[in-house]
Design a protein that fits this description.
With 498 residues, this protein is α/β, with parallel strands linked by helices. It has 2 domains: 286 residues, no CATH class; 175 residues, fumarase. The chain is built from 15 helices and 17 strands. The chain has a 5-stranded mixed beta barrel. A 4-stranded mixed sheet has the order 4-2-5-10. A hairpin with an 8-residue loop joins strand 16 and strand 17. The longest helix has 20 residues.
């Protein structure tokens, strides 16, 4: 009988969560580098380049790849011949590990978990509780997969029950086409087929943690029906032309992972869970001899890349001297380098601003002619002015856009992914613009932020309003003042005719 100490479980999971916060898996880097070689769209190539540069910077600096350091997902397979030396539940043990990892002084991770999902939505402050899944299996070891799942990709999880004769690939491809860019492609699609509703969803989440092998599979060809299905979905999704960050391009997905289970004769449950460009997970086993040890990847695994910031590639913009004429001259798909003052604000801040405006009162910051960045940054360490600070999904602010633009005079919004019709109509009406920063490049973006201070709604923590001073922050015009959207035009240009 193998005895596993409680302290070894806590030490291992805490170290794993820190490890994956700044190290991409090596297989992800290989597949992303291959995607860059294949990609032909200039906008998508720039996005992939930023993601890879950010990944290497995070690995060197030991700081989070993405500001959304994720929900802790812990899959435990406990050997039946294993005893855990503890009187506590596995949930309590794992939560201790998560708490230690997310509150580590040298590399604090952003706490994103709210305790009451319905009313108060108060943040737990330490990212607990974790999502713990336990399975009793044969053997005398404890096998653990630790992953950190961001909210943008998690929000795109889908489930359906098909009729047994309906093609799974057709539903998956149609669903991905409707997801938009909020899941931060290119990434991995996890698909669970069979079982029951909850079993299919769990399989889709778990299979994402398997090692990526699409490069090898495409090279050797399919040998099973499941591999044929993976290749079919892979090819058809990439033919959609969605591209990196939804900008349009040849590569939308890096791999397709599928897990199946027997199901009822009348049913075909199918779950789809995408994983974003901040793919973060690690596997380890405990055998009673001590905690797991994690080895950093070789830095030569990353391609040698630089960003092209020449005058013909980017337009330089002074945010402190914006005019309506200049804003209206920005064209959909154009790339900019922003310098000057911008403010931050996410869901909670927007709700408060709208509540204030509806009372006929002024919001606490003057946004007339200014820019706002949809971001909830990681806390800074050392001499940093701010921690990793990548964009959050902009569509969550769509319902507030008309009232904020009308009530404050705001002109520029920065986030990630597409905007809905409601927001685009408001942008065109007020001659405003929507820009995107690259999701999955949070550490790279943070280096453009030279000053940061909280100026309003301090109680909201990472969702407070900050005043930032930025220098040459790279962005792309996603919706121009006429309402033209790169997330519509880009994929149309690259979608393969079938």
């Amino acid at each position: 009988m193998t005895k596993i100490r409680e302290s070894d479980i806590i030490d291992s999971i805490a170290d794993a969560l820190q490890f994956i916060s700044y190290f991409h898996p090596a297989d992800f880097i290989r597949h992303m580098a291959a995607a860059l070689e294949l990609e032909e769209s200039p906008a998508a190539r720039d996005a992939i380049t930023q993601i890879l540069l950010n990944s290497r910077m995070a690995a060197i600096g030991r700081r989070p790849i993405c500001q959304d350091t994720g929900t802790a997902n812990i899959f435990i397979k406990l050997g039946i011949k294993t005893t855990i030396e503890s009187d506590r539940s596995l949930q309590e043990i794992v939560d201790d590990a998560v708490r230690r990892a997310y509150l580590k002084d040298e590399n604090p991770l952003r706490a994103s978990i709210v305790i009451d999902p319905i009313s108060s939505r108060k943040n737990s402050g330490d990212n607990t509780p974790a999502m713990v899944h336990v399975e009793l299996v044969a053997g005398d070891r404890m096998s653990i997969d630790v992953s950190a799942k961001g909210g943008g990709s998690e929000n795109k999880a889908k489930f359906t029950v098909l009729e047994p004769s309906q093609p799974v690939a057709d539903w998956v491809v149609k669903t991905v086409e409707q997801l938009g860019a909020g899941w931060c492609p290119p990434g991995v699609l996890g698909i669970g087929i069979g079982g029951s509703a909850e079993k299919a969803m769990l399989m889709a989440k778990e299979v994402i943690n398997e090692e990526m092998d699409m490069l090898a599979l495409r090279k050797r060809g399919a040998s099973t029906s499941l591999e044929k299905l993976r290749l079919e979905i892979f090819d058809r999704v990439n033919e959609l032309g969605v591209g990196a960050q939804g900008l349009g391009g040849k590569i939308t997905v890096l791999d397709v992972k599928i897990k199946t289970f027997p199901t009822h004769a009348a049913s075909l449950p199918v779950a789809l869970i995408p994983n974003c460009a901040a793919t973060r997970h690690v596997h380890f086993e405990l055998d009673g001899s001590g905690p797991a040890v994690f080895s950093p990847p070789d830095l030569t695994a990353w391609p040698d890349l630089v960003l092209n910031r020449t005058a013909d590639q980017y337009r330089r913009v002074n945010l402190d001297a914006l005019t309506d004429a200049e804003i209206e001259s920005w064209k959909c798909g154009e790339t900019l380098l922003l310098s000057g003052t911008l403010y931050t604000g996410r869901d909670a801040a927007h709700k408060r601003m709208v509540d204030t405006l509806r009372k006929g009162e002024k919001v606490p910051v003057d946004l007339k002619g200014k820019a706002i960045y949809y971001v909830g940054p990681v806390d800074p360490v050392g001499n940093e002015v701010i921690g990793p600070a990548g964009p959050t999904t902009a569509t969550r602010m769509d319902r507030f856009t008309e009232e904020v633009l009308a009530g404050t005079g705001l002109k520029v919004m920065i986030g990630k992914a597409e905007r809905g019709k409601e927001a685009i109509d408001a942008i065109a009406k007020h001659k405003a613009v929507y820009l995107i920063a690259i999701g999955g490049a949070a550490y790279l973006v943070s280096k453009a932020i030279k000053e940061a201070k909280r100026v309003a709604y301090h109680d909201l923590g990472m969702e407070a309003i900050y005043e930032l001073r930025v220098e040459e922050m790279p962005v792309t015009v996603a919706v121009d003042s006429c309402g033209k959207s790169i997330h519509v035009l880009g994929p149309l240009q690259w979608k393969k005719a079938v």
